[in-house]
Amino acid sequence: MRRNLLDALRDGRDSAPGLLGFGATVLPQLERALLAGHDIVLLGERGQGKSRLLRTLPLLLDEWTPVIDGAELGEHPFDPITSESRRRAAELGDELPVAWRHRGDRYLEKLATPDTSVGDLVGDVDPVKVAEGRSLGDPETIHFGLVPRAHRGIMAVNELPDLAERIQVALLNVMEERDIQVRGHSLRLPLDVLLVASSNPEDYTNRGRIITPLKDRFGAEVRTHYPLELDDEVAVIRQESQLVAEVPEHLLEVLARFTRLLRESTSVDQSSGVSARFSIAAAETVAAGALRRSAILHQPGEQGVARPVDLEAVIPVLRGKLEFESGEEGREDAVLEHLLRRATADTVRGRLGGIDLGPLVSLIDQGTQVVTGDDVSAAELLGSLADAETVAPVIERLGARTAGERASAVEFALEGLFLARRVAKDTGDDDGRTVYG
C-alpha cells in the first residue's frame, strides 16, 4: 500500500476517488498514516463519508496477488504462516497450488453490533473439525475469524464503540503483537493486516466507548468533517443522489444551503450532526415530485423537471432525519420552513444578482397571475406570462433550455420576489395550487 500510495502521489493521481471536500484536510492526514504503517480510527459525525473513505483504501492494494490455493488465510506461497499451509508447502514444494486474489476480496468490513463475538473477529474452536476426530489441542481445529482472514489485506470495523468492551480486548494482541489467542491456543501468526475503524466522537460517552488500551494502539486518529465549501456540498449531492427526474443546479444549491443552515442552527442538536444523507434524500424527494407531476399530467416517457414548488415536500418527508433541541418541541416545522426560505432567498441573490426583475414585478402588478402546482404543466406556467421578454434574462442566466427548465427558472425568480416581499403568493388548501400575483 505504501508503494502504491507513493506512486499515486508522484503521478498526481487521486488516492481516494469520489471523496469530495477532503483534499486539503482529511486526505493528507490519512496518507501520512498509511505511509507510516499505522492502524487508523476515523472520527466524525454521521454522514461525513467515513465508511466511503474506508472503502476506497483497497484501491491502494495491488490489483491481484498470489495466494496458496485452498488456504483459509490467503497466505503468500513463499510465506505460509499456518501449520497446515507450511506442511503443504513442505510436502508439495514447487507443486503447491497457487491462485490469484483480487484486491476487492482483501478488504473485509464488520459493522460493530452488540452481539458481535470474539469468534466473529478472532476465531473459535470448530466443533465440526473436533467431531472429525481431531483433538482440542490441535491448532488446526480453529475456525479463524474476520481479522486473521484479512491477512495481507484490510480489516475495517464500523462504529467501533458499539463493540462490547470485553470484545475490544480481543483486538489488543492483534494490533500490537499481530498474533491471536483462541480458547487457550496461542498462535504466533505474523498477521499482515491494516486495521481501520470508524466512530462518532459522541459514542465515547453515549452508546459506548473505545477502551483506553485499544485507543492507544491506533497509530493515527483522523477527524472527518462535512463539506466546507458550498460547491463541494452541491457536488456531493449531485454525485451520490439517484435522481429519477432532472433537478436544476439552482435547486440543488438551495438544498445544499438548507443543509448548511441546519448545521449552524441552534434549534438542531449539532452533537448528532446533519448527515449528507439528508441533502441527498432531499434531492431525490424533489426529483420524485417532478416525476409524479409528469405522471399526473399524462406525459409518458418524460421524467419532468423539478421546480421550487417541489421543495415543499422535503420538510414533512425528511423531518425524522433530524434531532432537535428539547426546547424546540412543537416548533420543528416552523424552524425548517424558516431555514428553507432563507436558503432559497440566499440562492436567488447569488444566482440572479444584478438582474433587473422590475419588469416581471410590473407584469404581476398589472394583474398577471402565475399558477404552479403538482398538476400544472410547464407549458401552462409559461403560458400565463403574456410578455416572455420579462423573464428572458432569468432564463439566460440559469441556462434554461427546455420548457421544463424555463418553467423552473421562472418559478425560482417569482419565489425570490415573494421572499423579498415584492409579489404575493397564495397557496390553496383545496387544490394544492400556488398562485403568484
Textual characterization of the structure:
The protein is of the alpha/beta class. It has 2 domains: 2-223, 3-Layer(aba) Sandwich (Rossmann fold), CATH 3.40.50.300; 230-436, no CATH class. It contains 19 helices and 14 strands. It has helices spanning 2-11, 26-36, 50-54, 83-92, 118-121, 127-131, 146-149, 165-169, 172-176, 212-217, 230-240, 249-264, 276-296, 314-318, 332-352, 358-365, 378-383, 392-397, 403-419, and strands at residues 40-43, 64-68, 98-102, 107-111, 123-125, 142-144, 153-158, 180-182, 185-187, 193-199, 220-223, 370-372, 425-427, 434-436. It has a 5-stranded parallel beta sheet. Strands 12-14-13 form a 3-stranded antiparallel beta sheet. It has a two-stranded antiparallel ribbon with strand order 2-3. Helix 12 runs antiparallel to helix 13 (276-296) and helix 15 (332-352) packs across helix 19.
Task: Tell me the layout of helices and strands.
Elements: H1 2-11, H2 26-36, E1 40-43, H3 50-54, E2 64-68, H4 83-92, E3 98-102, E4 107-111, H5 118-121, E5 123-125, H6 127-131, E6 142-144, H7 146-149, E7 153-158, H8 165-169, H9 172-176, E8 180-182, E9 185-187, E10 193-199, H10 212-217, E11 220-223, H11 230-240, H12 249-264, H13 276-296, H14 314-318, H15 332-352, H16 358-365, E12 370-372, H17 378-383, H18 392-397, H19 403-419, E13 425-427, E14 434-436
Parallel strand pairs: 1-10, 1-11, 4-7, 7-10
Antiparallel strand pairs: 2-3, 5-6, 8-9, 12-14, 13-14
Helix pairs in contact: 11-12, 11-13, 12-13, 12-15, 15-19
